Amino acid sequence: MKPVVTEWLVMRGVPLVRYQADATGVARSHGAGMMGVFVRQVILVLVLLSGGTLSVPSIAATSAPQTSDELSAVISQLCSRKVVLLGEDANHAGTQTIALKADIARRLITSCGFRGVVFESQFYDFVDVQRALDQGTSSLPQFSSAIGALWSHYAEFKPFEAWLYAQALAKHVLVAGIDPQVGGIDARFSQEKLPSVISSVLGGDDRVRCHEAIARHNAWAYDDAHPFDDAAFATLDQCLRTSAVSTTAHSGVEAGRTAAMIASYQAYLRSIAPHAANGGLRDKAMYENLLWVLSQWPKDTKVLIWTATVHAAKAPMEGNTPGQQTLGTYIRKAWGGDAYALGFSALGGAYGSTGGHGQVHPLVAPPPDSLEALAFSKAPDREAARFLDEKVLKRLGNVPGRAFNYGTFQTVDWSRYVDGIVVLRTETAHAAVD
């Protein structure tokens, strides 16, 4: 995998600066295939965990001796992999999913040697978090802001967030974001400081003009006098091109970080370019940012990627522009069977709106031949969730399911897109706590 990373960095002219961590992870290899081939043989009952481990109270089983072993069977599917993508509904607004993902992530870190945690969060803010961690000036609010409102505003995520930050502070884990987009509810660095970072490599009038253009865009402070039109885009594009050229004269850690942020911003601009066919460019940019992140980390760092299933999918999505790749597609090509894409869905309940504000949406009853209905067709009422591995998904074939988006059923062979799906009996809606 390393030659792929190096080739990409050389192509983009980004200086190679490796981040050295103090701690090392110990990977434990567990055999896969512990689940049976029939749906009824792949039950996963989620339970309260003790001893300071994150729990999922509202989906806890009432009886228990073997539930821990059953959860371990799911973890065993992931434990020996090098890259695990933890997906979720595209609305990012299901309480039970986020709590379960946090539990799985923590287990993989503490038991399976995973040391890198990458979020579908803004790349720039996490570069700043890493700088602050290196300098001993980081804070939990800064870390939370970098993760962003998709997750950090939810009570269900807060315990994991605090735990993960403590692990990063102790240099037990490495953290990063890979989304090239800018702006948003949080991500204060990209809104308040990134314009200065990018324009700092310029001089004179160019610095002033570009700082103003980038700051307006990142805060989306457009108005009638300053619309976001072709001219505004052209100014941004020219500023980033000039900045990219200017960074080649510098070297060192900070120059490398600045060059990477400029390259990411250029990729973001390509993804929003007016009058251009840009399908899939955001996923491509996330993959490119992932490669840069990995080039800074120790070789062979095992990585968790916290994202949506539409990005985690290991094959191009049906109905997309031909040739449009997902983040998971790029990862599967590079890592093959060492990568694993895990999806989530739910039989019933409700989900919220992105960011935790807005309407609560009830999950409509699924059709009887759906992924969700079939998962629970022979399950006792006490079972809170079921895990369907790739073999089971292949046996089910083309069935309706809503693992990509809780609001839409799609009829597909789910084994083409994910390696396994956890189906919850009841999802609950997120509500932001701040």
UniProtKB/TrEMBL annotation:
Query: InterPro entries given for it?
Result: Emycin_Estase (IPR007815), Hydrolase/PRTase-associated (IPR052036)
Q: Domain of life, per the record?
A: Bacteria
Choose any GO biological process term that the UniProt entry carries and state it.
response to antibiotic
Classification via PANTHER family: ESTERASE, PUTATIVE (AFU_ORTHOLOGUE AFUA_1G05850)-RELATED (PTHR31299)
* Stated name of the protein: Erythromycin esterase family protein
- What organism is recorded for this protein? Luteibacter pinisoli
